[in-house]
Amino acid sequence: MPRHIVCLTFDFDAQSGFISRGLTTPTPLSRGEFGIVGAARILDLLKAHGIRSTWFVPGFTIETYPAVCEALVKAGHEIGHHSWTHTAPALQTREQEEEDMVRANEAIRRLTGSKARGYRSPAWDLSANTIDLLLAQGFEYDSSLMGADYRPYRARRGDVVELGKPLGFGEETSLVEMPISWTMDDHPHFEFMRLPNSVMPGLQSPRTVLEGWRDEFLYMKQSVDWGVLTYTMHPYVIGRGYRMLHFEQLVDRLVHEGAVFMTMEEAARESLPHIVKRTNDAAAF
What we know:
Elements: E1 3-11, H1 16-20, H2 26-49, E2 54-57, H3 59-64, H4 66-74, E3 78-81, H5 94-112, E4 118-119, H6 130-136, E5 141-142, E6 153-157, E7 171-177, H7 186-190, E8 193-195, E9 198-200, H8 206-223, E10 226-233, H9 235-238, H10 241-256, E11 260-261, H11 264-271
Parallel strand pairs: 1-2, 1-10, 1-11, 2-3, 4-5, 5-7
Antiparallel strand pairs: 6-7, 8-9
Helix pairs in contact: 8-10
């Protein structure tokens, strides 16, 4: 029987993403603080539909807003690892990345009673060490890579990349990769950000964006018998009123279309019989 899974995931950064970029004046910090307002709205929507979701929460957020994070756990949502400082691993030494990973996992353990099973990298930019560190820390899945859309796969380590040569595929690991995409992320579509050397325009219509998100699910339904589609959202982004209106409509449509809502941990475990080896081009055919 066809089965089409949806993972609603929320990167609960609060102010951490602004702080890690050096944006520490009152206005950008207040943008992150709005995530507390957005989180309450999202929790109400999920409760109304009986949907459990996954929240990737930096240690910063857990220790800054403990009562809100406790509400997430009480509501039955999965708490995933999203670093402590929201610094991209590619910008850290191995020692810095490991220290940050351990510190954040301890914050999650204090909050939930156990360490996280899933990881999502800040800025979706893994370092050459991240996979090794995740395996050493006992993670079951990662959700930071974009090598597929509806079919989880095994994360690799040790790819050999040299300009002018074909890619040398590395070793497939036991870590399940739950693929994501910038197109299925609210932040680049909606957030206006003026940075020192660039401007991220954002501010698109949620009607247009979320129609595209709906169509992505419809294509999954028509193209595969079993699949997982992951949506990535940020409470301070999707939590704005007119975006919530369209998000609610999207959830209603997904329910109508027969979507099976799961936490990422649940979906990663269900995916195991569906994973195929993909270290060469024959895996796609």
